[in-house]
Amino acid sequence: MSVRALLDTRLLPVLVVAAIVIVLPLFFPSAYYYRIGALVFIFALAVVGLNLLMGFAGQVSLGHAGFLGIGAYAVAIGPVHFGMPSWLCLFAGAVVSGAVAFAVGRPILKLKGHYLAVATLGFGLLVAIVLTNEANWTGGPDGMNVPALTLFGWRVHGSDVWYWIAGATFVGGFLLALNLMDSPTGRALQAIHDSEIAARVLGIDVARKKLVIFIISAVYASVAGSFLALFNGLITPDAAGFLGSIELVAMVVLGGMGSVIGSLVGAAVLVVLPQALTVFHEYEQALLGLIVMVFMIFLRQGIVPSAALVLRGWRK
Amino acid sequence: MAELLQFVFSGLTVGAIYALVALGFTLIYNASDIINFAQGEFVMLGGMTTVFAALAGVPLPLAALIAVAVTTGVGLALHRFAIEPARGASPVVLIMITIGASVFLRGVAQIVFDKRFHSLPSLFGNDPIRFAGAAILPQSLVVLAGVAAIVVLLWLFIERTLLGKAVIATAANRLAARLTGVNTRRIVDFSFAVSAAIGAIAGILITPIALTSYDVGTLLALKGFAAAMLGGIGSPLGAVVGGLLIGMIEALSAGYISSSYKDAAAFLIILIVLVAMPQGLFGRVKVERV
Amino acid sequence: MRAMQRVAATAVIGLCAVLGAGLQASAQIKVGAVLSVTGPASFLGDPEKRTLEIYVDEINAKGGVNGQKLQLIVYDDAGNANNARTFATRLVEEDKIDAMVGGSTTGSTLAMMPVFEDAKIPFISLAGAVQIIQPVRKWVFKTPHTDTMACEKIFADLKQRNLTTVALISGTDAFGKSMRDQCVAVAPKAGIKIAHEESYGPRDSDMTPQLTNIRNAAGVQAVVNPGFGQGPAIVTRNYRQLAIKLPLYQSHGVASKQFIELAGPAAEGVRLPAAALLIADKLPASDPQKPVVVNYTRTYQQKTGQAVSTFGGHAYDGLMILVQAMQRAKSADKAKVRDEIEKTKGYIGTGGIVNMSPTDHLGLDLSAFHMLEIKNGDWTLVPGT
Question: Nearest CA to CA, how far is A33 from chain C (Å)?
Fold first, then answer.
């Protein structure tokens, strides 16, 4: 394949992201930056999944942190209560999340708009409540320790190591998402987003496609949650709570709904911004709210689509 | 038997609080299809402003009026400066703006006020009314009366006044409303202002029971939103029924089943109801012409 | 020409100031603090932040520590353990702190501990749970009384009044849950039977269903309410609403004048374990803690206009223990300071008299708690406690 052909394929964005992942650490003066980078990629992974659901298929989810919580607690409960190795618990968590998404998604994906939002909100809150109350399993509101991941006898530990793991997984998830969008399922989802009734008329099994994307987005969030727990060595129920879900939605919308690279941008903004705003001390909260509002009013498509529009305007 | 009555009283107390918050969501939704997550902050502003004005020496009734006025102003500002410029954006973006606004208002509140929690004196004293072995606070009855009054006023407004019809027209089809001479911008202004006022009044009435602090808004908005959806968004009666129902489920679950899962029970019921009735209890069935 | 000279002069002065500040900054002792200033634990974090700021300023005004000024770096984790961990990493890697006083909640403390242990930086936590210091970790200390001690004190008082069967109504927040777990654990040894349990959410507005169940439970002689924030105030009000006459015990997390204001007449007769800080003016003149707590109360109220809080007191103790350790070590060297913190003996603070050792990184015993009762809208000391 010629270089030009390669650049024209959908691999280009993936290569760009991979390049970013590899080049970025050259600018990192300390482990703190590795940690921020790792957190950005972990959340970006969850956001890619949510973006597939919200931006692409047009379904609102205000409870997605619930799946993040399931994945996170899977790698805590598994090793501590069942003696399972962490990597196996990661897969188990993803499977459980998928199963829960299947069970919950079937009835509630029939709902539309704000009603779906409330239903997913309820789901997220239910997960958070169970995680908080079942202290014998989950350690209660103070959370529980997460034993470090061991791969081939080597203990995975340290912000820099997790940076590479999270970055690599994000690139993989990114590629998968792009593939999905170009697949028949992806096109069906776009059709559903544009007009559900027209899609149904064309013979698309709307309910099934919505469920599939719900399950996929749940699995993305679960893996991200497992990474977060393993990285921090500790997990608390507020990772699955309402504020966590809102943060994920904000990352999707800020970066650009339907834009996979926007997921990375949105995650980066919302992870880095609170760190940058600490200089403002007690004005931090007010400023954060103000910035989110301003972004949404003036860049309502999201950062990446708006930037693309501007670039296109320049090119002309 | 006395316990059941006590649980019912508790459910009514808490449910009335949720109903008042849920009513605030209704008017804005009716005028503009927007879910305003900053509604909880309106409730907070009503309570906290009254508390701090009273602490500064202003007599309580005047403090309450100031609080309602300030909150109404904030509601108007929210519409003019945050929502209006983003008109035409997708619903999720608009929700995100209101969430940003609620974070902003909370951030400002913690600087202007403080981080402690506060109370207001009850309208009719603290001695509970005892009835058949159960006790209910007079303030709970005040809140319930407030709910009833607001529902009746809203219903009268929407059904019986020209302005109310204009609100419905704006929500149904903005362009058509403008073509018939309705100043849609003023209408939505008005709906935000009135919702903010309702929120402020709710805050003032609720604080003697539930206390107030700079961050009461979040959970109240959550439960109020859920109540409004349960009842069918857009229907004031639905908002009240939704609120009271959630309050009742919480109280009865806490009393009879398990107090740690009472919130879970409420949300589980909401999920079940929505799956069975996708429009909520009193919601209008949306007919989409293809 | 004169304008140019003026500009040049300003520039030189400005440069000196910046350089001077830079020089001064490099000679400062950096104390980090990650506190829950906003969020669900702001009730703890806000007074802690204010206290640290007030006293760092005071210490610097008096010349600092070992001739160096203290620089306080505060980050707000908003009650989120993940954020706490990130800020801890930032304090270690970017701000290069010499010591850490903070961690308003147990969750954030546990999340941050590995970071400070790896970096070998002394960490004085401001959180309550006993597992922070049990098992003892070399670099981790704490100043607040453990919730175990609070339970033991309450149970001892109950035993004194011949009340042995109790009901618990606890908040589902971390503070309430942790204290509830400890009460359940120490009850058998203290000869107390827990007959019935209920719980409530930290933001709930009505607890009458739970209290009704407690009232109907057989054999209950007293009620204990582990929790903090607004919940206990509402529980107390509901208690009176339901005309429950059993003795009510609150937790040490509630210890502030505001509780009495909010609970109103319902607070009459409520007992709780509290540090001497709360009854500063009622302490006998012979009490060694009196000067410290009176001084702190006055300073805090003067500078913030708010009533003093136990949590602010813990921050004060944490800072002072650290500062005194640095003075004894005559340096800010992390290992030396850690050793000196561990050797703290006879430190008189707001929480009690602290005597640490290699096996005890808290240094308080039950005598640090007094049992208080609310009478006529004010705290009174229950005699003999």
Answer: 8
